[in-house]
Amino acid sequence: MSRKTFRQLLEKYLRGECTPQEKRFVEHWYGLLETETGESGEELDMDELEGRLWNQIQKKMDTGEEPEQGRIVPLKRVRYRWLGIAASLLLIGGWFYFSQPIRNLLPGQALSVEEQTGWLDRSNTSSRPMTVRLEDGSVVQLSAKSSLRFPKHFAADKRAVYLTGDAFFSIQKMPARPFYVHTGEVVTKVLGTSFFVRTQAESGKVRVEVVTGRVTVYKQESEKQTSANGVFLTPNQAATFFADEQHFVTGLVDAPKVIQPAEAEKKTISLAFDDTPLADVLAQLERAYGIAIELENDQQKNCPLTANLTDQPLYTQLDIICAALKSTYKIQGTTILISGKSCTE
């Protein structure tokens, strides 16, 4: 639960519009504030009350401490002119409500009994990335102003989390338990890989960028139905979902990285060429980045290239190649196309 959501819940309580479950949750934390700090809240205004309650919740979540249960704590009449209510508080362990996932449900979609308990919420209110470690050993770098909802214990057949905002995921490989990242209408399915998910709340745009491994990205039509309009991504590839048009556009990441080989196969990758045919140069770049590079003019294949491209970013390497051969390149989806005349002309 984010602080904004909690404040909305508190305001709803004060208007007398809460469900019994929501009412017990608010009253539980109010009672805990009085019991542990001695603050009755009589003279607090709305902002002060909300701040004190939120601090109590965060304190318990950070320490993992369970609050006391089964005690009755009377609440003195609160002197808000706009409140006009008095209640007695029951400390009955409202923890279950706080751990319930709050997510963007599809129309008609309800939470199952299993999904209503045992969930955690992490919100990054700082200006730096926040590390969230999941039960399976996976790690999420949660960006500023982003939140993640995830279960304390994953199901036996799948692992699912709910993201609002941006995050980098490094997922433990478990073929029998695929990992799902739900971001609004978009679902990213992986077995074990690392990737970015970036969202724009205003436009509903969701972008997935793969660093290692492979992922499938698709639109969730309903609880059990997935869209056929999905895409399969490999390292250095990206897909952007446009909510208005309801479709994906594939492309390359802004700064492609060399794909590191397995530990046993690691060796220095040299991209220094001396009168090397262009076809061989591009083949090495394709292997290094996992990106298809094509020549529009086949007569350029044997054009010799002498250049040291080692440790240069991919797009700088392409600039050097095109400058030497008087050519140009452009990105078409997940492919790079080089255009130019034969070196013999």
From TrEMBL:
GO terms for molecular function: sigma factor antagonist activity. Residues 130-215 form the FecR protein domain. InterPro entries: FecR, FecR_C, Ferrdict_sens_TM. Pfam families: FecR, FecR_C. The chain crosses the membrane at residues 80-98. Gene3D superfamilies: 2.60.120.1440, 3.55.50.30. Coiled coil: none annotated. Keywords: Membrane, Transmembrane, Transmembrane helix. Residues 271-338 form the Protein FecR C-terminal domain. PANTHER family: PERIPLASMIC SIGNAL SENSOR AND SIGMA FACTOR ACTIVATOR FECR-RELATED, PROTEIN FECR. This is Anti-FecI sigma factor, FecR. It comes from Spirosoma linguale (strain ATCC 33905 / DSM 74 / LMG 10896 / Claus 1). The lineage of its organism: Bacteria, Pseudomonadati, Bacteroidota, Cytophagia, Cytophagales.
